[in-house]
Amino acid sequence: MTAQIIDGKFLAQKICSELKQKISAFNDNSPCLAVILVGDDEASRIYVRNKQKKAAEVGINCRVIELSSSIGENALLSTINELNNDPDVHGIIVQLPLPEHLDKQKIIFSISPDKDVDGFTPYNNGLLSYNHHDAFISATPKGVLAMLQSIGIDLRGKHAVVIGRSQIVGRPMGKLLLNHDCTVTITHSHTVNLPSITQTADIIVSACGQPQMIKSSWIKDGAIIIDVGINRLNGHLCGDIDFEDVKSKASYITPVPGGVGPMTVAMLLANTFEAFLRQKDHPQHHCCHGHDCHCSK
Ligand code: GUN
Q1: Cα separation of 288 and 55, whole Å?
Q2: Edge-to-edge strand order for the sheet containing 61-67?
Q3: Does domain 23-113 have CATH number 3.40.50.10860?
Q4: Whose C-alpha lies nearest to ligand 1, atom 2?
Q5: CATH of domain 139-261
Q6: pLDDT tens digits, residue range 202-260?
Q7: Which tens digit of pLDDT belongs to each residue from 118-145?
Q8: Which of 48, 93, 167 for mutating ligand 1's site (highest number of atoms within 8 Å of CB)?
Q9: Would you say the CB of residue 140 lies under 6 angstroms from ligand 1?
């Protein structure tokens, strides 16, 4: 068997074209995404540039706010607070990772749930746990789901093994697959005998950041393999999957680059458009003073 490639770049382009068309109908008003970039992490800069470029293509204003790595926590919180209160901004993301001295949770939790287009706040995470349709779902898991749906498989009852338990990918991915009736196993760095688990998987979603870790001997015949990893090996980009080895045994596989990456960007833009639509109809649902505020709004 040679696996069919799930072409994320092509699929993302299709999603972006549809989005562009929908956005063009609002000719007097465009969605706006604010991206906060703290410090000078090289990979983050590339990701943000990609988001900015794609946003422009579909007609979303992208306001990139570049802040010094030495910024204090209060200054960053007050920047987010201003964006929460700015009616011209519909989506806010803080590019991760943040410098060590900043409390990541405190920063993320201060984003208004209405503008949390990364789906990282406890509110949107909670809605995802409830399988509630109002949840903003993190872009990468949402993109992976769209890739699985694009091949027309019935997810019900499939054993999906997620490798990695990060807040950005592994955990929300597990919940999302569960919401689509998969039987989900979330594995991580302390999992004992990982290959014995992946060998039973109908679907593997890997987001562990270990270059080419997953070999053909780890998977069963015909498994569907989704590679979220973006790693550097000998100067080249590669995923968590040993693509050349695994492709002869899997039924479907995603490439790196050109797989999940472009889908993440497309889904972030789709979430921003959704936030724009909701705020157009209902200017502000939530108090924008942070999660520990008890004001009446
Ligand atoms: N860093 C790596 N992936 C992501 C993402 O999806 N969102 C944000 N905000 N930061 C990231």
Answers
A1: 25
A2: 61-67, 32-38, 91-94
A3: yes
A4: 96
A5: 3.40.50.720
A6: 999 999 999 999 999 999 999 999 999 999 999 999 999 999 999 999 999 999 999 99
A7: 999 999 999 999 999 999 999 999 999 9
A8: 93
A9: yes
